[in-house]
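Worked example 2:
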Amino acid sequence: MMHRKTACFICFVFFAAISCVQAGWREQLQTVFKPLQQASLSDTQIGQGLKEALMTGVDHAVKKASAAGGYFQNEQIKIKFPQQLSMVEKGLRTIGMGSKIDDFEKSVNRAAEAAAPQAKGALLDAVMGMSFEDARTILKGGDTAATDYFKQKTWNRLYQMVAPSMKKTLDQYSVSQKYDQLLGAYNKIPLAAKPKLISADQYATAKALDGLFVLIAEQEKKIRTDPQARITDLLKSVFASTGKNNKL
């Protein structure tokens, strides 16, 4: 009887040890397999995956930005009175023109929301027309590496493309007119310092475009970190090795 109990105990320990070893091998295989899975993709496939992520980001950005309050109610991208003219804003609020500044900010954000859909075509064309110099490095980069690269390579050209339609929308909301009235009132303040002025159209267009890139980056980060956000087979394949919640 004693020998039988001893044999059972030894078997129990043996199979428990095997289970632990197997569990360890599964973890090791996952560690080894994921880099191999990524390495099996060509640079062209990775580049296509990055483009698809950016195009998904553009859809997300335009939809979110063009909604009512898309800019105005989102502190991340809300267009405020130019920070470079903070002394102007302070002076105007001091003489009781705070409501005029608030009205300007509301108008410029409403204009940006209305203009966002018009920028979608230019953004998508820019994504399709770009190439990645080192797609694999960008894939392995930070949560917004593709968006950062996209912005760096295309921002100036995109600005020129969206500026005309943005100006028309700004005019519809009388943004430049309200801005000029504010500056005129400030210039009448005795002994007020005179900072270097900036164009309302140029400022608003740049801030609106920057806001879209913020939202594109937001979606890229989600694709990288949340498998549920990878809505196509290509995104699933390319981003399989990124994020913290991936499983084989």
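Residues 43-238 form one domain. The longest helix spans residues 2-39.
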